[in-house]
Amino acid sequence: MTAPNVAATNAARQGSGQLNWLLDELVERVASIHKALVLSSDGLATGTSKELTREDSEHLAAVASGFHSLAKGVGRHFEVGRVRQTVVELDEAFLFVTAAGDGSCLAVLADADSDVGQVAYEMTLMVKRVGAHLANAPRTTGLSAGG
Prior knowledge:
It contains five helices and five strands, in the order ααββαβββαα. By secondary structure, the protein is an alpha+beta fold. The chain is globular.
């Protein structure tokens, strides 16, 4: 495993300092969590832990957004309610995606031998702790309807 490119990591982290600090604290406090980010409803990283390069944060945000969107589709289609959390089990990790305010999500990558309940609990605490910072409105392009 290679160390993240510091310049790329810092570039991805600009503009969301308080979220970054809280995500770094989550990764440091919960040993099984290695990467964490907050993403907007349109799949953009709005805060990242320091372990994520810009490229990796963009990729993880897009993947997490896709999984969360698919899970929301299941809830709508089968009329079984809103998505609370999506968990993907991989050979060597878990991907957790938790709704974290209007239009945003918290995503983490954790060890395959993680205590799934503990990770989910820590994510819930994080969402409650910083709920005001996690509520993101969808991006607008700034273009008028006329073009």
